[in-house]
Structure formats: structure tokens, C-alpha cells
Amino acid sequence: MERWAIAPVTINTPMKILVLNAGSSSQKSCLYELIGATLPEHPPKPLWEAQIDWTHQELKVKTAQGNVIKETLPSSSRADGTAQMLATLWNGKTQVIENPGEINIVGHRVVHGGEEYRQSTFVTKEVKDAIAHLSIFAPVHNPANLEGIAAIEKILPTVPQVVVFDTAFHATLPPAAFVYPGPYEWLEMGIRRYGFHGISHQYCAQRAAQILGKDLNRLRIITCHLGNGCSLAAVREGRSIDTTMGFTPLEGLMMGSRSGSIDPGILIHLLRQPDYTVDKLDDILNRQSGLKGVSGVSNDMRQIGEAMANGSDRAQLAFDIFIHRLRSSIGAMLASLGGLDALIFTAGIGENAYEVRAGACEAFGFLGLKLDLEQNQEKLSEDRDIATPDSKVRVLVIHTQEDWAIAQECWQLAHSS
Ligand code: ADP
């Protein structure tokens, strides 16, 4: 393996930050170039963006200049696929750097940081061991994150790597919010509420303060991350004090194909049936439930909307449950906050499905929250406040920028070390 010299990080030279975001069935990646001694106020456009769909073994790459490639990966090896993806940074039509040595730092999204990791950190052997150990809590995601770290170590053995944890933002939950009311031994076994989507919730809370021109420390915010996975966070003084996901990303809201919270008695009942195994239950709760399970149509909110328009009662029921549970959980976050200054919608559904935003907001008119129904229905390609001027609660649509949030963490760690 050829070794490249790593460009030193100094305060005024451009800094190239590679971000890797590994999911169960995809690997997303992008390269940012930051110039200057301070972070830009708005997310810059990445120089290069790539995505691997492991299910279809497909790699897509696009650059800021508009060059695009779409390739089929020759093997299902994740290490080979990641190496092929990274090589498009310095080879071929999508080349944006001369050689890998131009990359100053690499940031990874890691789903589970457990109790130990309350903030982003540089990768060391100890950190890797901890991520591996925490795989028992995140069996799909944490191993994928480790593969990404290993792929970079092979290609860029001396480049500093940073891990940014999806659980870290929720490290400030108070015990009453994170301890389950089971036997106390559960807590000693690590069975507690961790919360997820923290990178997105934190980014949205900070961005909300920026848009509103207010001090984050004086705001009470509920962030609604509604994508394939859905969760809420109650943010006070910039800290997460409550959230809907728990020990795993299965708790809380109804999701695309995940049930969210259900009576645990159902699990006991089903496991007593002769044809129910633990694996079958796992598949049902994670992949055959939620919008998909109820509607029988799809896990995709767009298709639920189409089916509703075509008169599907089950799609309508799935939508109604989604809204009912979203409202209930917003109510729960509201109680934890003791008031509300801003309600934030983000991710695929939150940014696009105006019917969901309208359905959720309708229940909170008693707070003086007034949604501007016309603005709500416009295509919101920019972050925007869609409450009426006299609304007592601001309602914001924010395009979540998890990769940018990871890049910022890298920048900050690089400049503080
Ligand atoms: P992930 O959690 O996989 O990152 P996304 O944030 O991309 O997911 O969100 C996916 C969800 O967003 C899907 O339910 C999809 O239907 C929904 N979505 C995306 N675009 C729209 C749209 N224009 N209208 C309604 N829903 C949308």
C-alpha cells in the first residue's frame, strides 16, 4: 500500500474533511473543504459526495462541479466497496484531490457510544475496542462503523480519525428520563435509555437559535426528526433533557417499518406462541411494522399519501396513528420542558410532508401555536420559520445536516488539539 504524507492542519490553510456515515444498508460519504480561521455560518457545499447502496451493490458519486458516476460494485465486500468509493476522490471523472494525502481528517458517525462517550473523540485503539464492545447494543450499525474506520486506516494510515456519536447529545438526560422502571440491575447491565439521532437533534437546535437570532441557552425546543427512523428530543438550554428513543432505536414514535413503543405484554404473548422466535419478532418489530405494517402499502410516507388519495382505509389508518403518536409524544416532551419556544421539523418526512406538520401542530393551538398554513404547503428548500407572526411558538422546518455537523466536530477537535 502506497503511503501518502498527511497535510498538516494549520489555522489558515484549507482543511479537507472526509465524512463517513455508515448505515445498515448504505454508506454515505462527503468531502468538505473549509477555508479560514472560523467555521462558516452556513453549511458549505461538499466538493464530493458518494453513496453506496449495499443491497444493490451500487455506487453513486457526484461532485460540486456536477460530475457524476454510477457504478455497480464487482463484489459484495464492504471493505473493497469503500476503497472503490474513496478512490473516486483522486481518480477519474469525479476526481477532486490529487492524492489521498490531501485529506486532513476523517469523521465517522457512530450510532452507539454507550455511557462512556459523551462527546466526539479521536479514534484510538481504546475507542475502537469500546465501539466493538458496544456492538451488542447496536449489532448492525457499530460493526459497519468499525469497517469504515478500518478502511481509512488501510488507505490513510496516519490521518487522524474522529468519531461522532449519535447517542452523545442525550448524555445530559436526567436519571428520571433514562432509567427504565424495571429491576435496578438493568441499569447495571447497561439497559437504560440512550436516545439516538443526537447529531441531528443537536444540529437542529443550534440552527434554530441561529435562525431565530436567539441565545440557545434561553430556548425550550422540541426537535422532531421524522425520517425512516423517527424520534423527538426536548432541548432546554441547548441540552437534551428528554427523547423518545431509548435502549434501542425501536422505542418511541411509529416509524416507516418500526413499531415504536408498544405494550411489552404483546412480546410476551407472541413469544409464547409456538411459531414465534426471537429473530422473527425482531424482524416483525423492526421491518414489518410501523407505516408499512399497518398500511400494507409501504414504509414510505409518499406512497402512504398516494394510497390515501386512492381511498385506502389502511393507509389512512397508518397516517392517523402516526399523527396521534406524534402529538402524544410532542405532549410528553412539552411536559418535560415546561413550555415551548420552538417546534422543529426535520428529515425526509419533517422537511417535506406538510400534512404531517399540519396534523401535529393542530393539537397545540391551545399553546398559542399558529402554523401559517400557506407557507406550510410551499416547497421549503431553505430552512424557514412557518409560524404566523403572532404565533406564541415558532415552528421551523430545518434541513438536517448530519454530515456537516460531523465535519464541524472534526474541525473543532483538530483546532483544539
Ligand atoms: P433516513 O432515516 O433513511 O435518512 P429520510 O430522512 O430520507 O430517511 O426520510 C425518509 C422518509 O421521508 C420516507 O418516509 C419518505 O417517504 C419521506 N419523504 C421524503 N420526501 C418526501 C416528500 N416529498 N413528501 C413526503 N414524504 C417524503
Automatic annotation (TrEMBL):
Chief location of this protein within or outside the cell: cytoplasm
GO CC, any one term: cytoplasm
Names of the cofactor(s): Mg(2+); Mn(2+)
Molecular functions (GO terms): acetate kinase activity; ATP binding; magnesium ion binding
Coiled coil segments of this chain: none
InterPro entries associated with the record: Ac/propionate_kinase, Aliphatic_acid_kin_short-chain, Aliphatic_acid_kinase_CS, ATPase_NBD
Binding site residues for ATP: K28, H225, L226, G227, N228, G229, D300, M301, R302, G348, I349, G350, E351, N352
Keyword Transmembrane: no
Positions of the catalytic residues: D166 (proton donor/acceptor)
One GO-annotated biological process of the protein: acetyl-CoA biosynthetic process
Enzyme nomenclature, EC number: 2.7.2.1
Catalytic activity: acetate + ATP = acetyl phosphate + ADP
Pathway: Metabolic intermediate biosynthesis; acetyl-CoA biosynthesis; acetyl-CoA from acetate: step 1/2
Annotated binding of Mg(2+), by residue: N21, E402
Subcellular location: Cytoplasm
Keywords: ATP-binding, Cytoplasm, Kinase, Magnesium, Metal-binding, Nucleotide-binding, Transferase
Site (Transition state stabilizer): H197, R258
Binding site for substrate: R109
Cofactor note: Mg(2+). Can also accept Mn(2+).
Family assignment from sequence similarity: Belongs to the acetokinase family.
Subunit structure of this chain's protein: Homodimer.
Role, per record: Catalyzes the formation of acetyl phosphate from acetate and ATP. Can also catalyze the reverse reaction.
Protein name: Acetate kinase
Lineage of the species this protein comes from: Bacteria, Bacillati, Cyanobacteriota, Cyanophyceae, Oscillatoriophycideae
The gene coding this protein: ackA
